């Protein structure tokens, strides 16, 4: 596995799956023991993360993953970046920018997301931030 190319491909596939709310793709991209810490401190497991899309509660008009830095640690990697979204959650505006930390682990020839932590930020990506 070409790790750098594989991680770049993982980031592209994850961003697209989140933007589209692609339940099947997210199921394949997340580890079975995936854990998310949301921007207000709540914790979701894999099923709860995916169910936000399956139920139709979360819809993105736009979803970006920018200013990403990746540090490799053997068969794992930590990615830190800025997630931007124009979204509706449960009928309410859920637009925002979040500083995100991802823990990505090698699973055979693939990379999978094991954990994610979102922190709200007023900063938009780019040099003017």
Describe this structure in words.
The protein is an alpha+beta fold and 129 residues long. The chain has a single domain (3-121), classed as Roll (Nuclear Transport Factor 2, Chain: A), CATH 3.10.450. The chain is 26% helix and 52% strand. It contains 3 helices and 7 strands, in the order H-H-E-E-H-E-E-E-E-E. It has helices at 3-20, 23-29, 46-54, and strands at 30-37, 43-45, 58-73, 76-89, 92-93, 96-107, 110-121. Strands 1, 2, 3, 4, 5, 6 and 7 form a 7-stranded mixed beta sheet that branches. Helix 1 runs antiparallel to helix 2 (23-29). The longest helix is centred in the first third of the chain and has 18 residues, at 3-20. The mean pLDDT is 92.
User: How much helicity do the residues have?
Assistant: 25-40%
List low-confidence stretches. none
Number of strands: 7
Average of per-residue pLDDT values: 92
Could you tell me the radius of gyration in angstroms? 14 Å
Helices, by number, come to 3
CATH topology name, in short, is Nuclear Transport Factor 2, Chain: A
Shape, please? Answer: globular
Note the main attributes of this structure.
129 residues, alpha+beta, Nuclear Transport Factor 2, Chain: A, seven-stranded mixed β-sheet, 3 helices, globular
């Amino acid at each position: 596995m070409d790790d750098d190319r594989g991680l770049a491909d993982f980031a592209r596939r994850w961003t697209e799956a989140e933007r589209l709310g692609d339940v099947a793709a997210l199921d394949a991209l997340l580890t079975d023991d995936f854990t998310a810490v949301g921007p207000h401190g709540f914790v979701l497991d894999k099923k709860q993360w995916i169910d936000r899309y399956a139920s139709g509660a979360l819809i993105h008009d736009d979803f970006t993953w920018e200013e990403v830095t990746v540090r490799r640690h053997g068969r794992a990697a930590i990615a830190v970046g800025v997630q931007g979204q124009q979204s509706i959650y449960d009928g309410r505006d859920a637009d925002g920018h979040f500083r995100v930390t991802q823990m990505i682990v090698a699973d055979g020839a693939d990379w999978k997301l094991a954990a994610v932590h979102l922190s709200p930020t007023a900063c938009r990506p780019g040099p003017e931030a």
